[in-house]
Amino acid sequence: xxxxxxxxxxxxxxxxxxxxxxxxxxxxxxxxxxxxxxxxxxxxxxxxxxxxxxxxxxxxxxxxxxxxxxxxxxxxxxxxxxxxxxxxxxxxxxxxxxxxxxxxxxxxxxxxxxxxxxxxxxxxxxxxxxxxxxxxxxxxxxxxxxxxxxxxxxxxxxxxxxxxxxxxxxxxxxxxxxxxxxxxxxxxxxxxxxxxxxxxxxxxxxxxxxxxxxxxxxxxxxxxxxxxxxxxxxxxxxxxxxxxxxxxxxxxxxxxxxxxxxxxxxxxxxxxxxxxxxxxxxxxxxxxxxxxxxxxxxxxxxxxxxxxxxxxxxxxxxxxxxxxxxxxxxxxxxxxxxxxxxxxxxxxxxxxxxxxxxxxxxxxxxxxxxxx
Length: 372
Fold this sequence. Notes:
By secondary structure, this protein is an alpha/beta fold. The protein contains 13 helices and 15 strands.
């Protein structure tokens, strides 16, 4: 019998220098509560001590983790290594903005033990960066990547956003070409989605911002996949590409294959295998709870076997691995639908697994509903 997969540890840094107009993740454009949050995170670590197995990944996301002062960053990882059990082969990732990555900051990231950096590039076109409200230029992003590489980082990911009205298709292809030339180990390409509560959602409500048509989305998505696969990248999840199997994001894969993970910080989510719980979206309430010795959990749910099966199907059909045939209901209707999807070129069958094709990735969110 194989050993169960190791869990992952996520830490949410809810601070940014400014709030991007498209971002719906919980963060505040102020560092005034950073010290209080930092002490609260250390308390939360201690309250969960011994409740999970040995972690093999740490992912520090946000927000903008690269705004954390060097001393805090080193103290945070030292606290984790002192009080949490980790596997020897630990992937430890930090998200960073290009504008934060001075040589001193890069040295601090390396000194704190991080061996993977995910760089929030978003675009390598200055007009797109201006539209997205980013605080860096294309040249700054490239220089930040080159400084990371020159400092010895061998696992660098970059995030890109595509598919908005003011982005010419040719400009997106140019960004992809530049990203490939950097030889990043990992590239995430997220199609623009207009989330409620963001500046962009308010612009959409006013009729000032429009999403792409379905056909435009299809062209952007399929061309992105073709360009990156032709350059040697593995398209292993709807939005994610890696230069080799071992360079896939170890931590993020836990979300897609139902591996347990612990989330610390305001708004962070956790999953034990049968239960999911989450912290509230307030730094002050988060800190107050932990200062009182109480976990800052806002809500939880115990998953039924049917819910787990549905989630396994929904998450698995977003990945190159697909899902085991056993997850598909063995009803005549479901089996007939599976055959129809196969004939339409949306899935294929590989050794008792249902695997989405590139066209299947394009409609991944709709595929699970075909079977229920």
